[in-house]
Specification:
Elements: E1 3-12, E2 14-17, H1 26-33, E3 38-40, E4 43-50, E5 57-66, E6 73-74, E7 81-82, E8 93-102, E9 107-111, H2 119-133, E10 139-142, H3 150-156, E11 160-169, H4 171-177, H5 185-200, E12 204-210, H6 223-238, E13 246-256, E14 263-269, E15 277-282, H7 292-313
Antiparallel strand pairs: 1-9, 1-15, 2-10, 3-4, 4-5, 5-8, 6-7, 8-9, 11-12, 11-13, 13-14
Length: 316
């Protein structure tokens, strides 16, 4: 039977209590929205829990019913377009997202479905429903991406750094979030550039450090500075207020080629090494259900395949 790929987001979960108290667990938040519908912009969202059959693993199924802005039906022979034969007051088109949450690693695997519920909408839904019923425990939820270790380790393994390019978006947000932080030299440079960009109304700032030839500058950029920038950028990706502000971190330097034992120049994009994963489900031409079990089986197989690497990245 033919299959189709279902891409996923692989992220960590941050739940911040805005009042300064203890934050609820993410599983509590999922239970809060279970059977607690959310309707916005012509879409009705519903969540139901699934049995993962795994200790420490929570699974859920998000159903989306779209009852507005519905596309027409086209006859392939006559080319005629007609409205769907449904009553939008009673029916709608149905779409699905399956999610898996590893409580120990604090990792969320979330199916991407452009017609369903995006992660940003799930965040909005959780915050709205929880904050409505917990006035003394208001929260903010964020989903920072998880970065693989390969490119970062290659950067640390460089013997000589020649160029660093760092492009950051929304300088005003960066300045605001960096207040009251103990800053390294790299962070001080980021703050200064962000402040300049904020004052001039810039949408983004680019920090570039460059060296001339090896003959004129054999030492290259400071190793501590480059590593500080790389560490700071990785932390920005994990920090709720800053993760959307990182656009590019590219570092050019020399590594030792193990075959020739000679120096070789290369450029590494720190954020090119995020998880790009998917699972498969059977392809059905005319669907009469949302393939709940197929989606569950597919995401569990994906999880089993990537969890050893996740455990290496997130040591708990």
């Amino acid at each position: 039977m033919p299959t189709i790929k279902r891409k996923v987001d692989i992220v960590s979960v941050e739940v911040n209590c805005l009042s300064g108290g203890d934050s609820p667990q993410f599983t509590q938040l999922l239970r809060c929205i279970e059977a607690n519908e959310y309707y916005v912009n012509g879409k009705l969202f519903e969540l139901s829990m699934l049995d993962s059959e795994r200790q420490g693993v929570t699974m859920a199924f998000v159903e989306t019913t779209q009852d507005s802005d519905l596309p027409p039906v086209k006859n392939k022979q006559s080319k005629e377009l007609t409205a769907l034969d449904i009553d939008p007051n009673e029916e709608g088109l149905a779409f699905a997202n399956v999610l898996l949450y590893d409580e120990r690693l604090n990792v969320l695997v979330y199916e991407i479905n452009r017609n369903g519920c995006y992660l940003g909408k799930l965040k909005e839904w959780i915050e709205r429903r929880w904050n409505e019923s917990h006035e003394d425990q208001q929260i903010e939820v964020n989903f920072p991406v998880i970065i693989r270790r390969n490119e970062y380790n290659r950067i640390l393994g460089m013997t000589n750094y020649r160029k660093l390019t760092c492009k950051l978006l929304n300088p005003t947000q960066i300045v605001r979030e960096m207040n009251n932080r103990n800053e390294s030299l790299a962070e001080q440079i980021v703050r200064q550039q962000a402040e300049n960009g904020s004052q001039t109304g810039a949408d983004f700032v680019t920090i570039e450090q460059n060296c001339t030839s090896l003959r004129l500058n054999p030492n290259g950029l400071s190793r501590d500075f480059v590593r500080d920038i790389a560490d700071f950028a990785r932390n920005m990706m994990r920090y709720a207020g800053l993760r959307q502000c990182v656009d590019t971190i590219e570092i050019t330097g020399y590594t030792i080629d193990p075959e020739s034992n000679r120096q070789k120049q290369r450029t590494i994009d720190l954020f090119a090494d995020t998880f790009d994963e998917s699972f498969t489900i059977p392809e059905v031409q005319l669907q009469e259900n949302l393939q709940r079990e197929d989606r569950k089986t597919g995401v569990l197989r994906l999880y089993d395949r990537i969890v050893p690497e996740l455990r290496q990245i997130i040591r708990v």
